[in-house]
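G., the chain you wanted modeled:
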Amino acid sequence: MKILEEPKDIRLKIMDFLSRREHSSKEIYRKMSRKVESKEMLIQSIQELEKDGLISDERFAESYFQSRKRRGFGPLRIKNELIQRGVQENLFYSLDATTDWSYYALEALKKKMNGKSPEETKDILKLKSFLNYRGFEFQDIDKAFDLLNKEN
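Predicted structure as tokens:
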């Protein structure tokens, strides 16, 4: 592995990461820290890119939030994943304000069921456990099951 010593090389490598997808500043730091000689130079490069608007935790949070929501993950899981990636919790709450999570829980439930209705209590509990693992809150899980029963 090549150790980067010049600010220009560090910036180019960060730009390479950013060309593929949005990253939080913490993610960039974590990925790059093994590849640079000077941590101070890395921090300075990240700050410059933030100042230039090329690294944005807000933009990353928006992109990540929408992606995970579409893939069937709930608010608890998404919030924890964003915090692990260095995004402030209040950014999550600003994105989450208008989301009807029971709709997304219902969509994840339908996909998991694959057209088969759960017959036994054991099967229903498994599906509820799955949605809970995905990060949905209990009231959204119950509402999703109510909506499913109304559809059938």
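The mean pLDDT is 94.

Shout if anything looks off.
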